[in-house]
Structures are given as C-alpha cells and as structure tokens.
Amino acid sequence: MTYVHYERLSALDASQLALEDRNVHMHIGGVSIFEAAPLQDAQGALDVERIERFVLSRLHRLPRYRQRLAATPLEQHPIWVDDERFNVRYHLRYSSLPKPAGERELKRLVGRIISEPLDRQKPLWEMWFVEGLEGGRVAVVTKIHHCMVDGIAGTSLMTALMRTDPDPTIEPVPAWIPRPNPTTRQLLADFASRRALLPLSALRAAAAGLFEPRRAWREVRDTLAGLREMIASQLESASATPLNVPIGPHRRLDWCRFDLPALKEVKQRLGGTLNDVVLALFAAAISRFLSGRGTSVADTRFRALVPVSLRSAERHEPRLGNRVTFLIAELPIDERSPVERLRAVRTTMQRLKQSRVAKATDVLERLLDATAPSWFARAARFGAGGNSYNLVVTNVPGPQFPTYLLGARQLETYPFSPLFANQALTVTVFSYDGQLFWGFNSDWDAVPDLHDLVLAVQEQFEAFRKAPPAEPRDEEAVA
Fold first, then answer.
1. Ranges for all domains in the chain classified under CATH 3.30.559.10
2. Is the pTM of this model over 0.90?
3. What class, spelled out in words, does domain 213-395+440-478 have in CATH?
4. What is the DSSP string of 408-449?
5. For the structural domain made of 7-161, what CATH number should be given?
6. Mean pLDDT for each consecutive 10-residue tract of the chain (479 residues)?
7. Main-chain phi, psi angles of 429, to 5 degrees
8. 31: helix, coil or strand?
C-alpha cells in the first residue's frame, strides 16, 4: 500500500470544533508588543520578506502549522492531513494604524481581527503584524484554533517561534514536501481495523488488572467517584448575571498587567498560591463590576470554570493538542475582606484539587476517544451551553525570561480565550518575564463597559497589596 499520512484528532480536540458556530469562534491567541526597529527595513517599513523567511525557517518545528482538516468517511471524525497548497503568505497578515496609535486604537483593531473565524479549509492559524504604534513598537496578533493547542501547548509554540537571544540570523529554510493524503479506501480500512481491535484493547486492560487487582480496583473506584463529583458539579446551577446572555460574532478586547514580584509578595503575605490570588482578585473585581450593573452580589452564586493542565513533565506527550480538565470553582464575590476572600478561594481550590474529577475526566476522554469520540463532543456542547458556570478564567504560566522575534524583544503579551454560548466574557492570565498579563475577551454588545472591569481589577490589586497579613484560624494554627 502506498505510504500516506494522517492523524486523528483526539475526542477533546474534536470537541473544540463541535463547539464552534457563527457566533462562537474557538480560536485562542494573544497580542504581543515588540520593538519595531529590528523588524523594519531601511525605509522604516516592516520587512515582510525577511519575516516570511524567518517563519518558514521555524515551521519544521511546528508540523501542525502546515496541516489542514479532513474527515473520515463513515464516522466523519476530523483528521489532520498535510496541506498540499500551503502558502505561508496566506497566514501572515499585515495591517497599519494611523501614527501614533495608542492602546485604545490597537484594542479596537484586535477586536475586529479576533471576531473573524479561521478558514477550516486552511491550516488553522494566522499572525497579524500591526505597524503604527506609538513608541516605536509593533504588535503581533496570533490566532490559533483551540483544536490545535491548549494554553500550555500554545506557550510551547511561542517558544518555538521565538529565540532567547536577540540574534536576527535566519536559518536555512528546510525543504518541505507534503505527505500524500489517505484515500477513502485507506480510511475505511483503518476504521475497520480500529473497530476490530477494540475488544483486544479491553482484554489487555482487563488482563493488566488481574496482575494488580488492588491497584485496578482503586483506579475503578477513584474514576467512578470522580465521575459522580463531575456530574454533580455540572448539575448545580450558577446564578444568571448580565454576562450570561446570548452572544454575537463581534468581540471587544481589553487588558492590563501587574509586576509578578508584587503579586508573589501578596501570596507570601496572605497565603495561598499565585492562582488563588488571581481568582480572589478577580472575584473582588467582578463583584464591583456586577454591583455597578445593579446585580445584588449577596444573592448571586458566581461560578468560574478553571482549566487545569494534565500535562506532566515525566510523560513524553505530544506538544500539540489539548491535555486539560476543567474544575468549577464558586467564587466568594459577596465577601468584602480581601483576606477572607482569599481564604475562601484557597479552601475551594484545595477541595477541588483533592477531588478525583481530573482523573475521571482524563479516563473518560481516553475511553471515548477510543470508542465513541462523538459522544465527548456532545457532552462538551451540553456543558458549554448550560448554566453550571458563569465564565472561564484561565491562568497559563509562561517563560520568565525575555524572548525575541528576529532580534526584536517581546515587551508585552496579552492572551485571549474564546467565548462560549451564553457567556459574554472570558479572562485569561499569562505570566512572562516577571510580569502577569491579563487579557479580557468579551462580546461587543453585551459588555460595552469592559474597561470598567479592567479598572476594577487594578483597584482591587491595590486593596490586596495594602491588606494586613491573615490571622491564622484555630484549625489552621493547629494544623
């Protein structure tokens, strides 16, 4: 048989495609600000040809960037195949703002860029280079479909495209020849083979349990307990808020940043993890924001979906794709004291981390991936369209050292995540080079006052910085 190449999307990756419709655009990305001079030619314009050569010289590290979607003939499961018509110039876009453009103009432009869905007939990514910013800077807006990467994998992509030194040298562009796509007959044969091997895979798993029955029983018990916890959490309802309305296709983006050492000082003084501080800080800000909208926070049960990475440094896993589970955390938006609010968040997150939901979700995803991946997509649509949580808050760790693009230092980088149906806001936090960058993505019409929320986050950060150290409770002192 002639050599062909394709890769099946996992059930979790495929679910990111199933969630997408005319209003829900499932791409993630960010806005990075660079020094302009190293990216310009002698006339002060962007050196487009040099940028294209540089990206082509790095794409061999990112084979998914040259692949497009196709589908298997019977189950219509999505697969990756090499794009025989790949042209990097389609994916690298260029725009210019009237000089000298400030953050306000840039945010409006980025909102329009991320309002457009990616073309599924092409590799699912774009990079926009934006000139005209004040202070001799250039913005790079990235859009990558969520079926390609999660937040952690997205960080590895940034690292692959960047350098850790200002060396502007462009390596030789490796030759690339697209691998042949599979025929319908070959895909049908592979489908039949997969189905035939399912009972054998189940027998192997059962045989492994016979040799270690106690371990196997613990695995089954923990998985079932985790599934019960997950179902119970999904069945609980969050309160309706002005943020939980049907969304349209248009987006409004905003951002802010804090020095990471200042946040770590709050963490050390008040306790908890950095993620606890982020959630408590956001809870305080959203409380003020909703109160300004006329919502009684005392009567509001506000719940955030918090993605948690399942990637392990000890496991040699693929760099791309999604390896996450999701925990639903109720945020104490009715608590007035920063210390008590952080204490409540710590308690909630410690309980969730000790739960077995993460393991159960991972096992369920792997099981459905091997047997009925379409069911995972249906479950994802049900969860995203329900009312078990109000919004998504994501915290992604990034490199704590400067990175460079063709010798241009990356100065700032603001992330964004997609909106779900009936959820008009997502919050994404990314740490880079000693700073914590907050990205707010919202529906254009539902959240016209998005900047009020950004100001509230900044104000509440100062309140946390000034808060006195927490007094240990009796049970904490005994522990």
1. 7-161
2. no
3. alpha beta
4. EEEEEEEEE-PPPTT--EEEEEEEETTEEEEEEEEETTT-TT
5. 3.30.559.10
6. 81 89 94 96 94 94 93 92 97 95 96 97 96 95 88 58 91 94 92 74 50 58 69 78 96 97 93 94 97 93 85 45 73 94 94 74 65 65 75 91 95 96 95 97 97 97 87 51
7. -120, 135
8. strand
